[in-house]
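Data availability (excerpt). The following record was deposited with the supplementary files.
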Amino acid sequence: MRQYFWVLILLFASLMAHAQYDQGRKVGANTRLWRTKVESEQLYSFAVEKATSVTIRYEGILEGAYIETAGKKYALSQDEHHQGKSNSTNLLIFDASISEFSFFTGAISGEIQIIVIDAERTKRVSGVPRLNEQYAKCGEPAMVDQSIWREGLPEPSYNRSFTVTENIIIHHSATSNEVSDYTNVVRNIYLYHTQGNGWSDIGYNYLIAPDGTIFKGRDPGNGDQDAVIGAHFCGRNSTTMGVCLMGTYTNISPSDEMLESLSLLLSWKADKGGLNPFATNSHPLNTALPVIAGHRDGCSTECPGQATYGRLVEVRNTTADAIEACSEKETAMFSIYPNPASSFFKVELVGGDDHRFELYDMRGQFFKIEPQQMHDEIATFSTGHLISGVYILHYQSADELIKRRLIVSN
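Predicted structure:
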């Protein structure tokens, strides 16, 4: 009888705990939060009404933890953008809604918080022009507007702040590389940032999907998309613009389509803002912060993943190439070679006897430049006194003023 009594007590306690878990605490229109205690190296099962993404706040070390649902295991890593008192796992986004999952704690023990998000399925975005389709125009690339990807979700409402961009910060979202519904990814990141973290809006100015699609991020209201201050760079966001590559790129490299879109987006922004892709600027977190920088250049983080960070030199070069290709004036009679130039460059002269040259960087600063040699209608110049970067060469002949971009890579 006594044994039967204790079985009933344990069953009742289990049901009550499960009921308490199912209620949770609503922290947003689409987000619920639960608190529970766990032990290390244990597997716990949870039932939810509907979820499109899950993240877990914890204390201690994250090692060996994973979430399992629909027969698949998802390893958990630390969310390097979370700035709360506790640690947080990466946001685990699912292509299809789930109603239950299991959590293996690994080294985690003690009280945890489980944040469950339902981004509400919406139609996929299709037929969006890729950036290379607008490449010849050299203007602002095609993007998915907030009104499309945010359909049906609460809109942000706050007083925006704006800044002049001096550094462009590259991130990765640390989400699954297997997710194929990129609109769903952006919706979940938005809800995680606003309802999970309590931020005013999504943290990034732009997000780029593996297929090259660019999504507008933080809503600028009546301001400019590339000038609204986000929440992405180690708590020091002024003078920066944030671009997030959707996925995890610690060991896996971003796709060619993603990097192409990134470079073309950056070339548009750099050309618009007079930014030199090869330069550095002083920032409170780094006195020599590259104009095109990784998140890790500002604080202790792996973001944007080594496989991305290792290719930023390539990104700077292709960005500069795209700027050069969108030269203000193209003419077959005037060419610069080699371009990029490492120690010298040559100019094919236009007919006539009057040849004057001036050189400016992307901020309009003048640099004196004179031919070392002029022979057979070719002028040869040294770049030894120039730092690496993008310049505009003004060539005044007897007939016209011609401008061409010069890339110096000493």
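Summary of structural features: The radius of gyration is 26 Å.
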